[in-house]
Amino acid sequence: MDHEGRRITQATLAGRAWVADFIFTRCAGQCLMMSDRMAALGSRLPQEVQRVSFTVDPGWDTPEVLAAYAERYRAQDGRWIFVTGEKTALYQLCRDGFHLAVGEEGPPDEPITHSTRLVLVDPQGHLRGYYDAEDPAEADRLLRDVRALSATR
To answer: CA-to-CA distance for 115 and 99, rounded, in angstroms?
Structure first.
């Protein structure tokens, strides 16, 4: 379910490229940086490219909490959605679907550990690239890959 209460499935995203990340709204550090990167990508990505942020803290990150977070990042244009759901399914998606780390062994100020990578997904749902959100230069590489992906369509 997204931050507006809509059910999100693979079919929702099928047919368009999208950039994914895994965050949580109570995060005091890396998630803020990742969300800043995703926000900055918004004006640089082609109109048809979706951004999708999945929470790794679904017990806290309800659609209402995610809606407030989305508002903080001015994500009301429908091109950036924040997704919550059942914890086991989200962790499985992160680990098995996106091949990214996630766990609950972090320090008190960051109790959930997870990857800081952004992931480019093509319109057929295939993973096309990983980009380190902590490296500003990676955003340019992601944008080049998005353009290359768009050119093949």
So the answer is: 10
